[in-house]
Design a protein that fits this description.
- The chain is of the alpha/beta class and 373 residues long.
- It has a single domain, classed as TIM Barrel, CATH 3.20.20.70.
- It contains 13 helices and ten strands.
- Helix 9 links the parallel strand 9 and strand 10.
- Residues 80-317 form the Radical SAM core domain.
Length: 373
């Protein structure tokens, strides 16, 4: 589908009990996506339905999982802003419900809302390991490190039941194929039996996203992710097991989690992190009105100030998609954040990128050699 020529963000829902923040969800707004042809609004037909809905208290919202048999599982990347060439995502959508997630607009391609649907309607690529095995055994395949979970978290809660990410790591372990992985879930500890030997051979590294040390703020920003304390414990567990582990303090949101940058880096270093990076807040497409709505719900006293600073770093807009600036921002404030990050990393002895992973030991999946010759 092609996006409309001019996407106008819809107005946020009215402040009613039905649209109040809901425990365990980042948003209750099923925002219309940019490909929708029809606009909808509440209409009072005389039966009192609108008034009744306005007085309702939101109930718990269950998670739905749709199984998908993917045709391809590896995605190529040629963006100069991103430090990997190949990625693999076992899921679409993410139950963690992080309100700031730049992947939310991708749900529009499924015809679903980047708001509520993104965190309640998930797609599980149940044949991910099978498709990966086929890709690694293809004629002429040249190994490059695979970044796992770059769009949605590979260890979100549903992984505990489905085990798709574990099956993927089993293939990578079997073939000695290098990989990196980023998560904010403690569930990554389950797979240490696969990760540790790969890390010891220079073929694996893990990054943990830690946006804040404040558990109350974390519950509002990323309602179903592990607590900050639990993530620090995961960093320590990985480090003690010999896994090179980094921390991502992303996204940096002005006046929300940005004041904690140095404290988060300090705590991560004490837990055993060896590298760190940070990306300033990005608000593509439908994410902008969703995030603005969240600000009005949770920090109304700072909402205008936060967005003014975001726009200052984004050339006067909510989002700047240009290569070279989309991850870093521009202007005085963006430069100040970079200096703070670099100075803190230098003081703490944190690297700003991970070591190159070894691709030389790769061996095609069992049976693939016969197809090569």
């Amino acid at each position: 589908m092609s996006p409309p020529r001019s996407f106008r963000p819809p107005a946020p829902p009215p402040a009613t009990p039905a649209n109040a923040p809901l425990k365990g969800r980042g948003t209750t707004w099923a925002i219309a996506h940019r490909f929708e042809r029809d606009a909808r609004e509440a209409f009072d037909d005389g039966w009192g339905a609108v008034d009744a809905a306005a007085g309702e208290t939101p109930q718990s919202l269950p998670t739905q999982v749709v199984e998908e048999h993917a045709g391809r599982i590896l995605a190529e990347n040629d963006s100069p802003d991103i430090g990997f060439e190949v990625s693999l995502n076992p899921y679409r959508g993410c139950e963690h419900g992080c309100i700031y997630c730049y992947a939310r607009p991708s749900h529009a391609y499924l015809g679903w809302s980047p708001g509520l649907d993104f965190e309640t309607r998930l797609v599980a690529k149940v044949n991910a390991a099978e498709r990966l095995r086929a890709a690694l055994g293809a004629r002429g395949y040249q190994p490059r490190p695979i970044a796992v979970g770059t769009v949605t978290d590979a260890y979100q809660p549903v992984e505990r039941r489905l085990g798709i990410t574990r099956a993927v790591l089993e293939v990578l372990h079997e073939t000695r194929h290098p990989f990196s992985l980023i998560t904010k879930s403690a569930l990554v500890e389950r797979d240490l039996d696969l990760i540790v030997p790969m890390a010891a051979a220079g073929r694996a590294c893990i990054d943990i996203t830690l946006t804040t040390l404040d558990p109350a703020l974390a519950r509002r920003l990323e309602p179903r992710a592990a607590s900050p304390e639990r993530r620090l414990r995961t960093i320590r567990t990985l480090a003690e097991a010999g896994v090179p582990v980094g921390v991502s303090v992303s996204p940096l949101i002005p006046f929300v989690n940005e004041p904690e940058l140095e404290r988060v880096l300090q705590a991560s270093r004490e837990a055993g992190a060896v590298r760190a990076f940070a990306i300033v807040l990005r608000l593509p497409s439908e994410l902008s009105p969703l995030f603005r709505h969240w600000l009005e719900q949770h920090v109304p006293d700072r909402a205008a100030r936060v967005m003014a600073r975001v726009q200052e770093m984004r050339g006067g807009r909510d989002n700047d998609p240009r290569f070279g600036s989309r991850m870093r921002g521009e202007g005085v404030w963006a430069e100040l954040l970079r200096q703070r990050l670099h100075k803190a990393c230098d003081r703490l002895g944190l690297q700003r990128r991970h070591e190159a992973l070894d691709v030389a030991a790769f061996r095609p999946p069992e049976g693939a050699q016969r197809r090569l010759f």
